[in-house]
């Protein structure tokens, strides 16, 4: 199935030259003059080689047909990350190299999308917005305006995020997993 390059997101699987690639990051550049482009970093599924590609935003890219289902995260052990399909109770183990740097977002029972090709997990997508707890923050600098000042914070899972000055330790926030940005204070 062809999709336009600007619609590619982290975790998508594309087919190039007969090989499957999982998208690690995708950024769209819109210069003042000229054609907007989408720059994509990908990992070849067969051997793990990382590749960078650049397309015009309107170019068609072949999105691979893979089995994508909801799975709940159970636990991590020496084999990898264990997920269970909620309807059929089928379990699948995702290896650490497929998981990549997404493991910091995982919490027990989290609903994720695991993509499999011929029964083997090849990519994973975590929810775009997750709720985390702040472990520590820097103190507020006196004289900063409240409207636009952000300070660095560290979550209990080890993720660094910039938060507004009023957020302190033990506060739960909603953050965006695409760019580790603060969205809002959690409503729970």
TrEMBL record:
It is found in: Cytoplasm. SUPFAM superfamilies: Nucleic acid-binding proteins, Translation proteins SH3-like domain. InterPro entries: Elong-fact-P_C (IPR015365), NA-bd_OB-fold (IPR012340), Rib_uL2_dom2 (IPR014722), Transl_elong_fac_P/YeiP (IPR020599), Transl_elong_KOW-like (IPR013185), Transl_elong_P/YeiP_cen (IPR001059), Transl_elongation_fac_P (IPR011768), Translation_prot_SH3-like_sf (IPR008991). SMART domains: EFP, Elong-fact-P_C. Pathway: Protein biosynthesis; polypeptide chain elongation. Residues 68-122 form the Translation elongation factor P/YeiP central domain. It holds the Pfam family EFP. The keyword Repeat does not apply. Residues 130-185 form the Elongation factor P C-terminal domain. Keywords: Cytoplasm, Elongation factor, Protein biosynthesis. One of its GO terms (molecular function) is translation elongation factor activity. Belongs to the elongation factor P family. Involved in peptide bond synthesis. Stimulates efficient translation and peptide-bond synthesis on native or reconstituted 70S ribosomes in vitro. Probably functions indirectly by altering the affinity of the ribosome for aminoacyl-tRNA, thus increasing their reactivity as acceptors for peptidyl transferase. NCBIfam families: efp (TIGR00038), PRK00529.1 (NF001810). This is Elongation factor P. The gene is efp.
